[in-house]
Amino acid sequence: MNNNIDKDTARPMSRRMMEGGVLLVVAAVLGGCAGTPSCLKTPRYANAKEFPKLKAPAGLTVPKPDPDWMIPSVSNGPVAAYDTAPQGTNASNPQSRCLTTPPPINTSSAG
User: Fold this and answer.
1) pLDDT tens digits, 69-95
2) In a 10 Å sphere around its CB, with 0-12 CB exposed, 13-18 middle and 19+ buried, how is residue 2 labelled?
3) Alpha carbon of 57 to those of 29, 31, 64, 81: distances in Å?
4) In angstroms, rounded to a whole number, what is the distance separating the alpha carbons of residues 52 and 49?
C-alpha cells in the first residue's frame, strides 16, 4: 500500500484555491466601488408620509409636542449631495458631490 501523497498534484490544487480566493476578494472590492454613490441615489425616507396628528380618546388630552423632538422642515427635500462638486474637489468623480460633513446643529435653545 502506498501512503505517499503525490505532492505535484496536491500543490497546484491548493494554489488554485488560494488564487481563486484572492480573485474573489478583488472582485468584491472593485464591485463595491462601481456604480452610483449611495448619496446620489434617492434615500428610502424621501417619499415618507407624515402620520396624522394624534387624537386622544374621550376623557384624555393629547400631550403637547416636545420641541426638542421636532423634525425641521427642509425646503428642498432631503439633501444628501451637492448639485455640483464643491470647489477644490475632483468634479469628474461623482463621489465628490456627496455631503461628507453633516450640517451644524443649532444648540442655542438647548438648556
Assistant:
1) 887 777 766 677 888 888 888 888 888
2) exposed
3) 55, 54, 15, 43
4) 9
Percent of the chain with pLDDT over 90: 6
Query: What length is written for the chain?
Result: 111
> Count of CB atoms within 10 A of residue 37's CB?
15
CA 77 – CA 43 distance, rounded (Å) = 11
Residues 47 and 62: their CA atoms lie apart, in Å, by 27
Q: What is the pTM of this model?
A: 0.35
Residue 31 bridge partners (DSSP):
none
Distance CA 18, CA 13 (A): 9
